[in-house]
Design brief:
Blueprint (H helix, E strand, L loop, with lengths): L1 E6 L2 E4 L4 E9 L6 E7 L6 E6 L6 E3 L7 E6 L4 E6 L8 E8 L11 E2 L3 E6 L1
Parallel strand pairs: 2-11
Antiparallel strand pairs: 1-3, 3-8, 4-5, 4-9, 5-6, 7-8, 9-10, 9-11
Amino acid sequence: QVQLVESGGGLVQAGGSLSLSCAAAGRTDRRYAMAWFRQAPEKERGIVAVISASGESTYYTDSVKGRFTISRDIAKNTVTLQMNSLKPEDTAVYYCAASFTWATAFSRYSYWGQGTQVTVSS
């Protein structure tokens, strides 16, 4: 079992920046791909970014490329999502997730955090 706890959400104006952090506890001896998903009201939860277990590979959904950066500190069991040039359409609840394999599909992720709200005002 892995427990994931997100932090760092909040309210920011368009064009601003936020940094989300996800701390993992429990079976952190195993190596997981980590991802951030987001869910806006009345929309499905969708992938934002993925980072491999080694940290060497990353994936970004098209709408955040060039603005968001995912990184991980393996020693500290943390994953960070740096979000720059935020837009109102980035407003959503952001979830951290862990998968035994590299994946972008929601169904492949076994462990989830509780979510953190990000609100971008225009």
